[in-house]
Amino acid sequence: MVDSGTRQTQTMCESTAAFRAALHELEQLKLARDQGQDLKTLISQELKHLEEDIALRAQYIQSPLERL
Description:
The protein is an all-alpha fold. The chain has a domain at 34-68. Helix content is 75%, strand content 0%. It has one helix and no strands. The chain has one helix at 17-67. The longest helix has 51 residues, at 17-67. The radius of gyration is 28 Å and the shape is rod-shaped.
């Protein structure tokens, strides 16, 4: 398709309803995957913080024991 005023060409494509539905499904799957990765990252970070907290608390408890 050519615009007579600007002489710019633009390609136009038609798609079927089945193609649009498949594309939509792919977009939803990608979104779900991305959200799953975000959740995995968040859980990993929380687990790391918990491990650090447990290590610090264990060290705090061991310190007075060593003085006994």
